[in-house]
Amino acid sequence: MAAAAALVIVGAVPGGSAAVAPPAGTNLQVLDWNMCDVPRWGCGERKVTEKVALLKQKVQDKYVQAMLLQEVCQSTLTELKSQLGAAWSVNFTPYHWSQKGALTVSPCETLPGTNQPKDAADNVGTAIVVKAGLTDPVQYPMLQPQTALVPPFQCATATYFEVRLCNVHSPRSESDQDFPQLDYRDDYQLAVKDIVEDFPQVVFGGDFNTRTPEAGAEHAKVWKPAELYGLPGEAGYAECDQQNYPNRRTGAPTHEAGVKLDYLFSNLKGRWCVVEPKAPEGETNLSDHRFLIYSVEVTPTATA
C-alpha cells in the first residue's frame, strides 16, 4: 500500500500571515495531549465522546485556543471539529509503518485478526488544532527507523496569533526491529531544535518519549542539543511545567507510569501551566498520558 498524503487540512485559512498584529495583552493557551486513540496500541476503549468532551471543556474553562494532539484518529478529529465549530481549523498528519524503509499509512482500527484497515478513510496521526486561522502547514522530513512506527513532525501557524506551532512525537527508544541497538531520539530532538529555532514566535511540544535530564545520565544524553531544554538565564526554551520547579529541568509526571514524557516549550514569556492530575481513587484518566496546557504572552499588555 502506498503512503497516504502527508497533510489533511480541515478548515484551514489560505496561506499568508495575519494582516494586523494581535492587540496588546494577547495571550495564547496551547494544550498538548497524547490521546491514546488506538486500541491495538494498548489504549483499550477509544472513548471518543468522553475525550472530545474533555477537550471542549478545556476550551471553555481554560480558554484553550490551540491543541497539539498525538495518537488521534481522523474520526475523532471530525467529531472534535464538529463540537468546536467553524472558527476552528485542523491539520492532520498520519503515522506510517516502515517495513525495510517502505512506508504504509497506519489505520485507526484494523479488521479482526488482520492488518487491514477497518475504515480506509480513518487513519491515526498527529493533529494541530487552532482557533482563528491555521496557515502554512508543513511536515518536516526526519531521520526514520527502518522497521518500526514512524511518527510525523509537523508545524503550522496560528494565524491570528502569529505563532508557529509544532507537534512532536519522538520515536521510542530502541524501537527499530532491524537495528534494535539504535536510539533515534537524540537525533530527532536535534532536528526539532534546528527547525524551531528559525521561528521568532513558537510553541512546540508533544510526546518526547524521553524522561527529564535530571532523571539520570541515560536520559540526559538523549537531550542532545543543550539549547533545547533550557534553564532560567541560559540558552534554550522554557518548558511549561518548569516554572513549578525553578532552576530544574524536570516536572510533574505526565504518564501513568509516574514519569514525565510530555513537554511544551516556547520562546514566549510563560504565564501559567496546567498538568492534568491523576484521576481520583477508583477512577481512571482517559489516556495513559496527561494533558498539559501552557499559557504564553503573545503581545505584552500596554503600559501607560
TrEMBL record:
Domain spans labelled Endonuclease/exonuclease/phosphatase: 53-289
Keyword hit for Hydrolase: yes
Keywords: Endonuclease, Hydrolase, Nuclease, Signal
Gene Ontology MF terms in the entry: endonuclease activity
Pfam families for this protein: Exo_endo_phos
InterPro entries per record: Endo/exonu/phosph_ase_sf, Endo/exonuclease/phosphatase
Signal peptide: 1-18
Protein name: Endonuclease/exonuclease/phosphatase family protein
Originating species: Streptomyces roseoviridis
